[in-house]
Protein backbone atom coordinates (compact mmCIF):
# COMPACT_ATOMS: atom_id res chain seq x y z
CA UNK A 1 0.00 0.00 0.00
CA UNK A 2 1.37 3.42 -0.97
CA UNK A 3 2.37 5.70 1.84
CA UNK A 4 0.94 9.23 1.98
CA UNK A 5 3.13 11.94 0.53
CA UNK A 6 5.21 13.90 3.01
CA UNK A 7 4.05 17.49 3.43
CA UNK A 8 6.45 19.18 5.88
CA UNK A 9 9.92 18.73 7.30
CA UNK A 10 8.36 18.56 10.76
CA UNK A 11 6.38 15.49 9.72
CA UNK A 12 9.47 13.36 9.28
CA UNK A 13 11.20 14.09 12.53
CA UNK A 14 14.21 15.65 10.83
CA UNK A 15 15.55 19.13 11.12
CA UNK A 16 15.86 21.43 8.14
CA UNK A 17 19.59 20.96 8.47
CA UNK A 18 19.16 17.25 7.84
CA UNK A 19 17.19 17.88 4.71
CA UNK A 20 19.42 20.60 3.38
CA UNK A 21 22.36 18.50 4.40
CA UNK A 22 22.13 16.93 0.97
CA UNK A 23 24.02 19.97 -0.22
CA UNK A 24 26.88 19.53 2.23
CA UNK A 25 26.81 15.76 2.27
CA UNK A 26 27.12 15.73 6.08
CA UNK A 27 23.71 14.50 7.19
CA UNK A 28 23.15 10.85 7.91
CA UNK A 29 19.92 10.88 5.92
CA UNK A 30 21.61 12.38 2.86
CA UNK A 31 24.52 9.94 2.95
CA UNK A 32 22.21 6.95 3.27
CA UNK A 33 20.02 8.24 0.45
CA UNK A 34 22.98 8.85 -1.87
CA UNK A 35 24.30 5.35 -1.23
CA UNK A 36 20.94 3.83 -2.13
CA UNK A 37 20.72 5.98 -5.25
CA UNK A 38 24.23 5.04 -6.32
CA UNK A 39 23.55 1.33 -5.93
CA UNK A 40 20.10 1.28 -7.50
CA UNK A 41 20.58 3.90 -10.23
CA UNK A 42 24.23 4.43 -11.13
CA UNK A 43 25.32 0.82 -10.66
CA UNK A 44 22.32 -0.61 -12.51
CA UNK A 45 22.59 1.91 -15.36
CA UNK A 46 26.33 1.22 -15.58
CA UNK A 47 25.58 -2.46 -16.03
CA UNK A 48 23.01 -1.67 -18.71
CA UNK A 49 25.52 0.46 -20.59
CA UNK A 50 28.27 -2.14 -20.12
CA UNK A 51 26.23 -4.85 -21.82
CA UNK A 52 24.88 -2.48 -24.47
CA UNK A 53 28.41 -1.43 -25.40
CA UNK A 54 29.57 -5.05 -25.30
CA UNK A 55 26.84 -6.15 -27.70
CA UNK A 56 27.16 -3.25 -30.13
CA UNK A 57 30.95 -3.62 -30.39
CA UNK A 58 30.98 -7.40 -30.71
CA UNK A 59 30.90 -7.13 -34.49
CA UNK A 60 34.41 -5.66 -34.51
CA UNK A 61 35.84 -8.55 -32.49
CA UNK A 62 33.80 -11.05 -34.50
CA UNK A 63 35.39 -9.71 -37.67
CA UNK A 64 38.80 -10.83 -36.40
CA UNK A 65 37.20 -14.27 -35.83
CA UNK A 66 36.28 -14.43 -39.56
CA UNK A 67 32.63 -13.47 -39.09
CA UNK A 68 32.78 -11.52 -42.35
CA UNK A 69 34.33 -14.44 -44.24
CA UNK A 70 31.94 -17.07 -42.85
CA UNK A 71 28.87 -15.03 -43.85
CA UNK A 72 30.39 -14.14 -47.24
CA UNK A 73 30.19 -10.38 -46.69
CA UNK A 74 32.33 -7.99 -48.69
CA UNK A 75 33.77 -4.88 -47.04
CA UNK A 76 30.94 -2.65 -48.24
CA UNK A 77 28.31 -4.99 -46.80
CA UNK A 78 30.14 -5.18 -43.47
CA UNK A 79 30.28 -1.38 -43.23
CA UNK A 80 26.56 -1.21 -44.04
CA UNK A 81 25.85 -3.61 -41.17
CA UNK A 82 27.71 -1.24 -38.86
CA UNK A 83 25.76 1.69 -40.27
CA UNK A 84 22.33 0.14 -39.66
CA UNK A 85 22.87 0.05 -35.91
CA UNK A 86 23.29 3.82 -35.79
CA UNK A 87 20.25 4.38 -38.02
CA UNK A 88 18.07 2.45 -35.56
CA UNK A 89 19.63 4.31 -32.64
CA UNK A 90 18.93 7.69 -34.23
CA UNK A 91 15.29 6.86 -34.99
CA UNK A 92 14.51 5.74 -31.43
CA UNK A 93 16.44 8.24 -29.29
CA UNK A 94 13.84 11.00 -28.76
CA UNK A 95 10.91 8.57 -28.28
CA UNK A 96 13.02 6.68 -25.73
CA UNK A 97 13.73 9.86 -23.75
CA UNK A 98 10.05 10.86 -23.71
CA UNK A 99 9.05 7.30 -22.82
CA UNK A 100 10.66 7.77 -19.41
CA UNK A 101 7.83 10.19 -18.60
CA UNK A 102 5.16 7.75 -19.76
CA UNK A 103 6.24 4.27 -18.61
CA UNK A 104 7.97 3.21 -15.37
CA UNK A 105 11.70 3.78 -15.85
CA UNK A 106 12.63 0.34 -14.54
CA UNK A 107 10.41 -1.19 -17.24
CA UNK A 108 11.95 0.98 -19.98
CA UNK A 109 15.53 0.03 -19.11
CA UNK A 110 14.70 -3.63 -18.42
CA UNK A 111 12.94 -4.09 -21.77
CA UNK A 112 15.87 -2.41 -23.48
CA UNK A 113 18.36 -4.86 -21.94
CA UNK A 114 16.17 -7.86 -22.67
CA UNK A 115 15.68 -6.71 -26.24
CA UNK A 116 19.28 -6.04 -27.19
CA UNK A 117 20.46 -9.15 -25.34
CA UNK A 118 18.11 -11.38 -27.33
CA UNK A 119 19.05 -9.65 -30.58
CA UNK A 120 22.77 -10.06 -29.85
CA UNK A 121 22.24 -13.77 -29.27
CA UNK A 122 20.21 -13.99 -32.49
CA UNK A 123 23.20 -12.61 -34.42
CA UNK A 124 24.84 -16.01 -33.89
CA UNK A 125 22.20 -17.49 -36.20
CA UNK A 126 22.19 -14.74 -38.83
CA UNK A 127 22.37 -16.52 -42.15
CA UNK A 128 23.72 -13.70 -44.26
CA UNK A 129 23.75 -10.03 -45.15
CA UNK A 130 19.98 -9.37 -44.89
CA UNK A 131 19.69 -11.04 -41.49
CA UNK A 132 22.59 -9.10 -40.01
CA UNK A 133 21.22 -5.80 -41.38
CA UNK A 134 17.80 -6.34 -39.78
CA UNK A 135 19.29 -7.43 -36.44
CA UNK A 136 21.67 -4.46 -36.31
CA UNK A 137 18.84 -2.01 -37.04
CA UNK A 138 16.66 -3.50 -34.29
CA UNK A 139 19.66 -3.60 -31.94
CA UNK A 140 20.08 0.16 -32.39
CA UNK A 141 16.42 0.75 -31.55
CA UNK A 142 16.60 -1.37 -28.39
CA UNK A 143 19.84 0.23 -27.15
CA UNK A 144 18.63 3.81 -27.64
CA UNK A 145 16.94 3.89 -24.24
CA UNK A 146 20.20 3.16 -22.42
CA UNK A 147 21.77 6.40 -23.61
CA UNK A 148 19.02 8.31 -21.80
CA UNK A 149 20.79 7.26 -18.60
CA UNK A 150 22.48 10.67 -18.57
CA UNK A 151 19.06 12.35 -18.54
CA UNK A 152 17.78 10.00 -15.82
CA UNK A 153 20.83 10.70 -13.64
CA UNK A 154 20.30 14.46 -14.08
CA UNK A 155 16.80 14.05 -12.59
CA UNK A 156 18.05 12.26 -9.47
CA UNK A 157 21.31 14.10 -8.72
CA UNK A 158 22.35 17.65 -7.99
CA UNK A 159 24.74 19.77 -10.01
CA UNK A 160 27.92 18.97 -8.06
CA UNK A 161 27.09 15.24 -8.01
CA UNK A 162 26.42 14.91 -11.74
CA UNK A 163 29.94 14.62 -13.14
CA UNK A 164 31.04 11.87 -10.75
CA UNK A 165 27.85 9.81 -11.21
CA UNK A 166 27.90 10.28 -14.98
CA UNK A 167 31.53 9.16 -14.97
CA UNK A 168 30.74 5.96 -13.11
CA UNK A 169 27.83 5.36 -15.49
CA UNK A 170 29.96 5.88 -18.59
CA UNK A 171 33.10 4.16 -17.31
CA UNK A 172 31.33 0.92 -18.14
CA UNK A 173 31.98 1.67 -21.84
CA UNK A 174 35.81 1.43 -21.74
CA UNK A 175 35.53 -1.43 -19.25
CA UNK A 176 33.27 -3.18 -21.76
CA UNK A 177 35.82 -2.50 -24.49
CA UNK A 178 38.58 -4.08 -22.42
CA UNK A 179 36.32 -6.96 -21.35
CA UNK A 180 35.34 -7.54 -24.96
CA UNK A 181 38.99 -8.08 -25.84
CA UNK A 182 39.43 -10.55 -22.98
CA UNK A 183 36.19 -12.40 -23.73
CA UNK A 184 37.02 -12.56 -27.43
CA UNK A 185 40.50 -13.87 -26.67
CA UNK A 186 39.10 -16.62 -24.45
CA UNK A 187 36.31 -17.54 -26.85
CA UNK A 188 38.56 -17.61 -29.91
CA UNK A 189 41.17 -19.70 -28.13
CA UNK A 190 38.87 -22.21 -26.43
CA UNK A 191 35.43 -22.37 -28.06
CA UNK A 192 36.04 -22.27 -31.82
CA UNK A 193 34.25 -25.33 -33.21
CA UNK A 194 32.69 -26.33 -29.88
CA UNK A 195 29.29 -27.98 -30.48
CA UNK A 196 29.66 -27.17 -34.16
CA UNK A 197 29.65 -23.39 -33.66
CA UNK A 198 32.19 -20.84 -34.82
CA UNK A 199 33.96 -18.76 -32.17
CA UNK A 200 32.08 -15.61 -33.24
CA UNK A 201 28.76 -17.41 -32.72
CA UNK A 202 29.76 -18.27 -29.16
CA UNK A 203 30.77 -14.64 -28.63
CA UNK A 204 27.31 -13.33 -29.52
CA UNK A 205 25.52 -16.02 -27.50
CA UNK A 206 27.57 -15.47 -24.33
CA UNK A 207 27.28 -11.69 -24.39
CA UNK A 208 23.57 -11.82 -25.24
CA UNK A 209 22.68 -14.18 -22.38
CA UNK A 210 24.39 -11.98 -19.79
CA UNK A 211 22.51 -8.93 -21.12
CA UNK A 212 19.17 -10.68 -20.68
CA UNK A 213 20.05 -11.62 -17.09
CA UNK A 214 20.96 -8.00 -16.30
CA UNK A 215 17.66 -6.84 -17.77
CA UNK A 216 15.77 -8.96 -15.25
CA UNK A 217 17.83 -7.51 -12.39
CA UNK A 218 17.20 -4.00 -13.70
CA UNK A 219 13.44 -4.46 -13.54
CA UNK A 220 13.69 -5.53 -9.90
CA UNK A 221 16.14 -2.92 -8.58
CA UNK A 222 15.80 0.27 -10.67
CA UNK A 223 13.61 2.99 -9.06
CA UNK A 224 11.12 5.12 -10.95
CA UNK A 225 11.30 8.89 -11.44
CA UNK A 226 12.27 10.78 -8.24
CA UNK A 227 8.95 12.59 -7.83
CA UNK A 228 7.08 9.28 -8.16
CA UNK A 229 9.29 7.67 -5.52
CA UNK A 230 8.91 10.74 -3.26
CA UNK A 231 5.15 10.55 -3.53
CA UNK A 232 4.55 6.79 -3.42
CA UNK A 233 7.76 5.36 -1.99
CA UNK A 234 9.40 2.13 -3.16
CA UNK A 235 10.89 -0.96 -1.60
CA UNK A 236 14.29 0.79 -1.48
CA UNK A 237 13.06 4.23 -0.40
CA UNK A 238 10.40 3.48 2.21
CA UNK A 239 11.08 5.95 5.01
CA UNK A 240 9.44 9.36 4.84
CA UNK A 241 12.68 11.24 5.57
CA UNK A 242 14.31 9.89 2.42
CA UNK A 243 11.24 10.62 0.35
CA UNK A 244 11.08 14.22 1.55
CA UNK A 245 14.76 14.67 0.78
CA UNK A 246 14.30 13.19 -2.70
CA UNK A 247 11.51 15.69 -3.39
CA UNK A 248 13.55 18.67 -2.17
CA UNK A 249 16.60 17.65 -4.18
CA UNK A 250 14.73 17.06 -7.41
CA UNK A 251 12.95 20.44 -7.32
CA UNK A 252 16.19 22.43 -7.26
CA UNK A 253 16.83 22.17 -11.02
CA UNK A 254 13.79 20.17 -12.19
CA UNK A 255 10.02 20.54 -12.04
CA UNK A 256 8.33 17.50 -10.50
CA UNK A 257 5.79 15.58 -12.61
CA UNK A 258 6.80 17.51 -15.72
CA UNK A 259 4.94 16.36 -18.82
CA UNK A 260 6.17 16.43 -22.43
CA UNK A 261 5.68 19.99 -23.79
CA UNK A 262 5.74 20.52 -27.55
CA UNK A 263 6.68 24.20 -27.23
CA UNK A 264 9.82 23.26 -25.29
CA UNK A 265 10.93 21.23 -28.32
CA UNK A 266 10.84 24.44 -30.34
CA UNK A 267 12.82 26.32 -27.69
CA UNK A 268 15.46 23.61 -27.66
CA UNK A 269 15.80 23.64 -31.44
CA UNK A 270 16.18 27.44 -31.48
CA UNK A 271 18.80 27.42 -28.71
CA UNK A 272 22.34 27.62 -30.10
CA UNK A 273 23.62 25.83 -26.99
CA UNK A 274 21.79 22.72 -28.18
CA UNK A 275 23.69 22.65 -31.46
CA UNK A 276 27.05 23.57 -29.96
CA UNK A 277 26.60 20.81 -27.38
CA UNK A 278 25.76 18.36 -30.15
CA UNK A 279 28.97 19.24 -32.01
CA UNK A 280 31.00 18.72 -28.83
CA UNK A 281 29.56 15.40 -27.69
CA UNK A 282 29.18 14.23 -31.28
CA UNK A 283 32.92 14.46 -31.89
CA UNK A 284 33.88 12.63 -28.69
CA UNK A 285 31.26 9.95 -29.33
CA UNK A 286 32.39 9.55 -32.93
CA UNK A 287 35.87 8.75 -31.67
CA UNK A 288 34.41 6.06 -29.42
CA UNK A 289 32.12 4.68 -32.12
CA UNK A 290 34.98 4.41 -34.59
CA UNK A 291 37.38 2.85 -32.13
CA UNK A 292 34.72 0.59 -30.64
CA UNK A 293 34.32 -1.17 -33.97
CA UNK A 294 37.59 -0.55 -35.80
CA UNK A 295 40.21 -0.69 -33.02
CA UNK A 296 40.79 -4.45 -33.50
CA UNK A 297 41.10 -3.81 -37.25
CA UNK A 298 43.57 -0.95 -36.68
CA UNK A 299 45.73 -3.09 -34.41
CA UNK A 300 45.60 -6.03 -36.80
CA UNK A 301 46.78 -3.72 -39.61
CA UNK A 302 49.67 -2.60 -37.37
CA UNK A 303 51.00 -6.14 -37.83
CA UNK A 304 49.83 -8.14 -34.81
CA UNK A 305 48.28 -11.62 -35.02
CA UNK A 306 44.53 -12.11 -34.37
CA UNK A 307 45.10 -13.33 -30.79
CA UNK A 308 47.63 -10.55 -30.10
CA UNK A 309 45.15 -8.05 -31.52
CA UNK A 310 42.44 -9.11 -29.05
CA UNK A 311 44.89 -8.64 -26.15
CA UNK A 312 46.43 -5.35 -27.32
CA UNK A 313 42.95 -3.89 -27.81
CA UNK A 314 42.64 -3.88 -24.00
CA UNK A 315 45.40 -1.27 -23.54
CA UNK A 316 43.60 1.87 -24.86
CA UNK A 317 40.48 0.96 -22.90
CA UNK A 318 42.53 0.45 -19.75
CA UNK A 319 43.91 3.98 -20.19
CA UNK A 320 40.36 5.31 -20.54
CA UNK A 321 39.26 3.48 -17.39
CA UNK A 322 41.87 5.55 -15.52
CA UNK A 323 41.38 8.89 -17.28
CA UNK A 324 37.58 8.92 -17.09
CA UNK A 325 37.11 8.98 -13.30
CA UNK A 326 40.24 11.05 -12.66
CA UNK A 327 39.30 13.86 -15.04
CA UNK A 328 35.57 13.91 -14.33
CA UNK A 329 36.01 13.83 -10.55
CA UNK A 330 38.66 16.55 -10.79
CA UNK A 331 36.24 18.59 -12.88
CA UNK A 332 33.54 18.17 -10.25
CA UNK A 333 35.90 19.09 -7.45
CA UNK A 334 36.94 22.41 -9.00
CA UNK A 335 33.48 23.01 -10.55
CA UNK A 336 34.86 23.44 -14.06
CA UNK A 337 33.53 21.66 -17.14
CA UNK A 338 34.66 23.67 -20.14
CA UNK A 339 38.40 23.73 -19.38
CA UNK A 340 38.58 19.96 -18.83
CA UNK A 341 36.45 19.31 -21.90
CA UNK A 342 38.72 21.54 -23.97
CA UNK A 343 41.75 19.55 -22.81
CA UNK A 344 40.11 16.18 -23.53
CA UNK A 345 39.24 16.92 -27.14
CA UNK A 346 42.58 18.63 -27.75
CA UNK A 347 44.24 15.38 -26.63
CA UNK A 348 42.17 13.52 -29.23
CA UNK A 349 43.35 15.91 -31.93
CA UNK A 350 46.97 15.17 -30.99
CA UNK A 351 46.28 11.42 -31.13
CA UNK A 352 44.86 11.57 -34.63
CA UNK A 353 47.73 13.73 -35.85
CA UNK A 354 50.18 11.06 -34.63
CA UNK A 355 48.19 8.35 -36.45
CA UNK A 356 48.35 10.43 -39.62
CA UNK A 357 52.09 11.04 -39.36
CA UNK A 358 53.71 7.72 -38.40
CA UNK A 359 53.62 3.99 -39.11
CA UNK A 360 55.59 2.84 -36.05
CA UNK A 361 53.55 0.34 -34.07
CA UNK A 362 54.43 1.67 -30.63
CA UNK A 363 53.65 5.26 -31.64
CA UNK A 364 50.35 4.23 -33.23
CA UNK A 365 49.31 2.29 -30.13
CA UNK A 366 50.23 5.34 -28.02
CA UNK A 367 48.10 7.52 -30.31
CA UNK A 368 45.14 5.16 -29.87
CA UNK A 369 45.60 5.50 -26.11
CA UNK A 370 45.55 9.31 -26.39
CA UNK A 371 42.27 9.20 -28.31
CA UNK A 372 40.75 6.88 -25.69
CA UNK A 373 42.09 9.01 -22.81
CA UNK A 374 40.38 12.12 -24.22
CA UNK A 375 37.21 10.65 -25.72
CA UNK A 376 35.61 8.82 -22.80
CA UNK A 377 35.83 11.64 -20.23
CA UNK A 378 34.99 14.00 -23.09
CA UNK A 379 31.59 12.36 -23.53
CA UNK A 380 30.80 12.49 -19.80
CA UNK A 381 31.94 16.09 -19.37
CA UNK A 382 30.16 17.05 -22.58
CA UNK A 383 26.95 15.44 -21.34
CA UNK A 384 27.17 17.28 -18.02
CA UNK A 385 28.00 20.51 -19.86
CA UNK A 386 24.85 20.06 -21.94
CA UNK A 387 22.32 18.67 -19.46
CA UNK A 388 23.18 20.93 -16.52
CA UNK A 389 22.64 23.93 -18.78
CA UNK A 390 19.20 22.91 -20.04
CA UNK A 391 16.15 23.30 -17.79
CA UNK A 392 12.67 22.03 -18.57
CA UNK A 393 12.32 18.27 -19.01
CA UNK A 394 11.23 18.30 -22.66
CA UNK A 395 13.80 20.96 -23.59
CA UNK A 396 16.53 18.92 -21.93
CA UNK A 397 15.33 15.68 -23.52
CA UNK A 398 15.12 17.36 -26.93
CA UNK A 399 18.63 18.81 -26.63
CA UNK A 400 19.86 15.35 -25.69
CA UNK A 401 17.97 13.78 -28.60
CA UNK A 402 19.48 16.30 -31.03
CA UNK A 403 22.88 15.39 -29.62
CA UNK A 404 22.13 11.72 -30.14
CA UNK A 405 21.14 12.38 -33.75
CA UNK A 406 24.50 14.10 -34.26
CA UNK A 407 26.25 11.19 -32.58
CA UNK A 408 24.55 8.63 -34.79
CA UNK A 409 25.12 10.68 -37.96
CA UNK A 410 28.76 11.08 -37.02
CA UNK A 411 28.96 7.37 -36.26
CA UNK A 412 27.44 6.56 -39.65
CA UNK A 413 30.10 8.75 -41.22
CA UNK A 414 32.75 6.84 -39.25
CA UNK A 415 31.58 3.54 -40.75
CA UNK A 416 32.00 4.99 -44.25
CA UNK A 417 35.30 6.88 -43.94
CA UNK A 418 37.36 4.05 -42.44
CA UNK A 419 37.49 2.19 -45.73
CA UNK A 420 41.11 2.67 -46.85
CA UNK A 421 43.46 0.19 -45.13
CA UNK A 422 46.11 -0.19 -43.94
CA UNK A 423 46.57 3.35 -42.53
CA UNK A 424 42.99 4.66 -42.82
CA UNK A 425 44.21 8.19 -43.50
CA UNK A 426 40.82 9.41 -44.73
CA UNK A 427 39.10 8.31 -41.53
CA UNK A 428 41.71 9.80 -39.22
CA UNK A 429 41.67 13.04 -41.22
CA UNK A 430 37.90 13.44 -40.93
CA UNK A 431 37.98 12.82 -37.18
CA UNK A 432 40.81 15.25 -36.50
CA UNK A 433 38.78 17.93 -38.30
CA UNK A 434 35.56 17.25 -36.38
CA UNK A 435 37.40 17.20 -33.06
CA UNK A 436 38.93 20.58 -33.87
CA UNK A 437 35.45 21.96 -34.65
CA UNK A 438 34.30 20.65 -31.25
CA UNK A 439 37.15 22.46 -29.50
CA UNK A 440 36.03 25.72 -31.12
CA UNK A 441 32.40 24.99 -30.12
CA UNK A 442 33.46 24.62 -26.46
CA UNK A 443 35.03 28.08 -26.52
CA UNK A 444 31.98 29.70 -28.16
CA UNK A 445 29.47 28.04 -25.81
CA UNK A 446 31.49 29.06 -22.75
CA UNK A 447 31.62 32.69 -23.85
CA UNK A 448 27.87 32.82 -24.51
CA UNK A 449 26.92 31.28 -21.15
CA UNK A 450 29.36 33.45 -19.21
CA UNK A 451 27.84 36.54 -20.84
CA UNK A 452 24.30 35.37 -20.03
CA UNK A 453 25.19 34.75 -16.37
CA UNK A 454 26.67 38.24 -16.13
CA UNK A 455 23.51 39.78 -17.61
CA UNK A 456 21.28 37.96 -15.11
CA UNK A 457 23.51 38.95 -12.20
CA UNK A 458 23.30 42.57 -13.35
CA UNK A 459 19.50 42.33 -13.61
CA UNK A 460 19.30 40.89 -10.08
CA UNK A 461 21.42 43.73 -8.77
CA UNK A 462 19.23 46.28 -10.51
CA UNK A 463 16.02 44.85 -9.00
CA UNK A 464 17.62 44.82 -5.54
CA UNK A 465 18.66 48.45 -5.85
CA UNK A 466 15.13 49.38 -6.94
CA UNK A 467 13.61 47.39 -4.09
CA UNK A 468 11.45 45.37 -6.48
CA UNK A 469 11.30 41.76 -7.62
CA UNK A 470 11.65 40.39 -11.12
CA UNK A 471 8.07 39.53 -12.21
CA UNK A 472 9.40 36.43 -14.01
CA UNK A 473 10.60 34.95 -10.70
CA UNK A 474 7.14 33.59 -9.87
CA UNK A 475 7.19 31.36 -12.93
CA UNK A 476 8.52 27.80 -12.80
CA UNK A 477 11.46 26.21 -14.59
CA UNK A 478 8.99 24.30 -16.75
CA UNK A 479 7.53 27.61 -17.93
CA UNK A 480 10.80 29.47 -18.61
CA UNK A 481 13.31 26.60 -18.77
CA UNK A 482 16.91 27.80 -18.45
CA UNK A 483 15.78 31.34 -19.35
CA UNK A 484 14.41 31.67 -15.81
CA UNK A 485 16.07 34.69 -14.10
CA UNK A 486 17.24 32.51 -11.19
CA UNK A 487 18.97 29.98 -13.45
CA UNK A 488 22.75 30.18 -13.85
CA UNK A 489 24.74 28.27 -16.44
CA UNK A 490 27.48 25.93 -15.27
CA UNK A 491 30.85 26.65 -16.84
Task: Please describe the structure with a list of short key phrases separated by commas or semicolons.
491 residues, mainly alpha, 21 helices, 0% strand, globular, disordered N terminus
Provide a descriptive summary of the structure in words.
The chain has 491 residues and is an all-alpha fold. The chain has a single domain (15-483), classed as Growth Hormone, Chain: A (Up-down Bundle). 76% of the residues lie in helices and 0% in strands. The chain has 21 helices and no strands. It has helices at 16-24, 28-64, 67-70, 75-99, 105-123, 129-143, 149-156, 159-170, 172-190, 199-221, 226-232, 240-250, 262-270, 272-301, 306-312, 314-334, 338-357, 361-387, 393-417, 425-466, 477-480. Helix 13 (262-270) crosses helix 19. The longest helix has 42 residues, at 425-466. The chain starts with 15 loop residues before the first helix and ends in an 11-residue tail after the last helix. Residues 1-26 have low confidence and may be disordered. It comes from Zasmidium cellare ATCC 36951. InterPro entries: MFS, MFS_trans_sf. Keywords: Membrane, Transmembrane, Transmembrane helix, Transport. Residues 1-11 have a biased composition (Basic and acidic residues). It is a multi-pass membrane protein.
Amino acid sequence: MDKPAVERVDDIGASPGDINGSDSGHSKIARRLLLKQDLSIVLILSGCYFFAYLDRGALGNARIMEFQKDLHLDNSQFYNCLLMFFVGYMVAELPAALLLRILPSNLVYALSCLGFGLLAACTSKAGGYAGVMVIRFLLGIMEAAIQTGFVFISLWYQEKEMATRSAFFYISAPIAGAASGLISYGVQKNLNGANGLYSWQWLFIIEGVFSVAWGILTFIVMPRLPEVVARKGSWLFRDEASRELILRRTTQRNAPDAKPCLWQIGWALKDIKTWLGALIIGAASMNIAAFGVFLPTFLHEFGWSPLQTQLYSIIPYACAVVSLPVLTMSSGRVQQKAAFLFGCLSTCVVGYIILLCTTKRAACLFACCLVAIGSYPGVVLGASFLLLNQAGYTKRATAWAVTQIFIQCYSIIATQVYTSPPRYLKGHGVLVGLNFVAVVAIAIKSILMKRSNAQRDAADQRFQEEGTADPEMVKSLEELCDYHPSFRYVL
